């Protein structure tokens, strides 16, 4: 995986160098002829020069996007290369869902109620399939960030022709999507056999998919910010452990926030962790009453807020790296 990523970054360096070469050639071509090219650009050719300028910006953006899409595709390829190993690891997922089915069947039987907080037994189990698939399938990326900073590898990564945070986001997303998908396959199969399907409208699919991606994005941004704290602290593991515990308890992983006491529910709703697992799981389990547009807008808002936090942490850490000389 390291070798492939390195070759991809080398390709990015080659693209950048090629772009500079074209730029110098273009300047020499217009400089020939005693300034006639310059006169054309400043005179009658203003509109065309401006158009070309905008066109080059758009082309640069598209090339940059293609570069990160290639990183994403390479990450997915690396993860699927060992997909059988990933499926073996999902045995834990099958055991968890099996235990939850018996636990909640007993709970509903004791309470003698068909629904609890609006969830039937089947809805509750499918809710837990989504939450457990995400929480166990996401890559704990703060560890990689922490390791890069403490080892000094980040000094070399920053000199490569890619945006450091976006490059790692593409890598994180590709690997996480494969692992979450494998968990969904195994956990969904167990839930289907034990409690049967639930009624989910077809139009819910794009909303749930977008919600899962936004939730993973919130998770990456938060984890990356925790990992970059290694610029200031010796070990970021305690912060990562606290974040994981909050995601399990207040993020709605083990219980829907609808079952929390009112005060605790307000606290959980004010934290970004519930956007990672509770939001997409709630939307899937009960799409009709989940207000999907509101959920997606709230997730996008948290992406923007946490993105600003990560940007500040990264800039301050990079400045510290420059001051200390790496």
Topology diagram in text:
Elements lengths: L1 H30 L4 H7 L3 H36 L1 H7 L1 H21 L9 H17 L4 H10 L1 H5 L6 H31 L9 H24 L9 H13 L12 H8 L8 H8 L6 H33 L2
Question: Keywords, please?
Answer:
single chain; 326 residues; mainly alpha; 14 helices; 77% helix; disordered N terminus
What do these coordinates show?
The chain has 326 residues and is mostly helical. Helices cover 77% and strands 0% of the residues. The chain contains 14 helices and no strands. It has helices at residues 2-31, 36-42, 46-81, 83-89, 91-111, 121-137, 142-151, 153-157, 164-194, 204-227, 237-249, 262-269, 278-285, 292-324. The model is unreliable at 1-51 (pLDDT under 50).
In short:
The protein has 326 residues and is mainly α.
Q: Biggest β-sheet, characterized?
A: none
Mean pLDDT: 81
Alpha-carbon distance between the termini?
25 Å
**Sequence stretches where pLDDT stays below 50 over 5 or more residues:** 1-51
What does the radius of gyration come to? Answer: 24 Å
Which H/E pattern describes the elements? Answer: HHHHHHHHHHHHHH
Please state the overall shape, judged from the principal axes of the Cα atoms: globular
As a percent range, the share of helical residues equals over 70%
Strand content: under 5%
How many strand elements? 0
Which structural class best describes the helix and strand composition?
Answer: mainly alpha
Number of helices: 14
- What is the domain total for the residues? 1
């Amino acid at each position: 995986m390291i070798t492939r990523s390195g070759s991809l970054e080398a390709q990015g360096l080659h693209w950048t160098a090629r772009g500079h070469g074209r730029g110098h050639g273009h300047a020499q071509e217009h400089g020939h002829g005693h300034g006639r090219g310059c006169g054309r650009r400043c005179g009658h050719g203003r509109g065309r020069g401006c158009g070309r300028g905008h066109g080059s910006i758009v082309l640069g953006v598209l090339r940059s996007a293609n570069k990160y899409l290639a990183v994403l595709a390479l990450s997915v390829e690396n993860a699927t290369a060992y997909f059988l190993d990933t499926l073996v690891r999902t045995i834990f997922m099958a055991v968890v869902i099996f235990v939850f089915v018996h636990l909640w069947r007993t709970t509903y039987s004791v309470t003698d109620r068909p629904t609890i907080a609006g969830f039937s037994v089947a809805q509750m189990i499918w809710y837990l399939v989504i939450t457990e698939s995400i929480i166990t399938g996401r890559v704990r990326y703060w560890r990689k960030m922490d390791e890069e900073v403490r080892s000094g590898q980040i000094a070399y990564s920053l000199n490569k022709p890619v945006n450091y945070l976006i490059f790692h986001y593409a890598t994180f997303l590709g690997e996480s999507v494969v692992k979450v998908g494998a968990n969904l396959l195994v956990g969904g199969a167990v839930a289907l056999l034990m409690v049967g399907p639930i009624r989910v409208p077809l139009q819910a699919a794009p909303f749930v998919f977008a919600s899962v991606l936004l939730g993973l994005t919130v998770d990456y941004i938060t984890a990356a910010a925790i990992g970059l704290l290694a610029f200031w602290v010796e070990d970021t593991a305690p912060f990562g452990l606290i974040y994981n515990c909050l995601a399990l308890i207040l993020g709605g992983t083990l219980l829907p926030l609808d079952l929390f006491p009112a005060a605790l529910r307000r606290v959980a709703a004010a934290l970004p962790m519930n956007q990672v697992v509770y939001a997409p799981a709630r939307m899937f389990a009960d799409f009709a009453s989940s207000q999907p547009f509101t959920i997606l807008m709230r997730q996008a808002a948290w992406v923007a807020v946490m993105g600003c936090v990560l940007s500040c942490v990264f800039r301050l850490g990079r400045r510290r790296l420059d001051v200390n000389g790496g």
